[in-house]
């Protein structure tokens, strides 16, 4: 079971866990539109090739556009043995709606 973080919980979570990795699994064209500051971008299809680049001793919050792809990636990472993985519920679109009204949406 992957823990879901709401976009409103994200700031507090990062404040309490400052080494958290925000893992953006969207496509390059999506990242060009908007992104969360400080994110690490690895498109979903490249995660199997680059999961070894991720530290396994810090929390990882995975996000995408609406939270579906990121949930699948979070489950995959948990299956590989990452034990501190979270999904950003609603993805960056929910973040733009609920947290940052200035953020571009698509």
Automatic annotation (TrEMBL):
Protein name according to UniProt: Probable adenylyltransferase/sulfurtransferase MoeZ
Xref: Pfam families: Rhodanese
The keyword Isomerase appears for this protein: no
UniProt GO molecular function: nucleotidyltransferase activity
Organism: Alysiella crassa
Lineage of the organism: Bacteria, Pseudomonadati, Pseudomonadota, Betaproteobacteria, Neisseriales
Annotated keywords: Nucleotidyltransferase, Transferase
Cited PANTHER family: FAD-DEPENDENT OXIDOREDUCTASE, SULFURTRANSFERASE YTWF-RELATED
Record-annotated Rhodanese domain positions: 16-104
Record carries keyword Nucleotidyltransferase: yes
């Amino acid at each position: 079971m992957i823990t879901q973080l709401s976009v409103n919980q994200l700031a507090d979570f990062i404040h309490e866990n400052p080494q958290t990795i925000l893992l953006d699994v969207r496509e390059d064209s999506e990242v060009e539109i908007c992104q969360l500051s400080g994110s690490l971008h690895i498109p979903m299809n490249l995660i199997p090739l680059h999961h070894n680049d991720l530290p396994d001793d810090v929390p990882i919050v995975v996000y995408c556009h609406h939270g579906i792809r990121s949930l699948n990636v979070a489950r995959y990472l948990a299956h590989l043995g990452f034990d501190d993985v979270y999904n950003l519920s609603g993805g960056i679109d929910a973040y733009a709606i609920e947290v940052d009204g200035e953020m571009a949406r698509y």
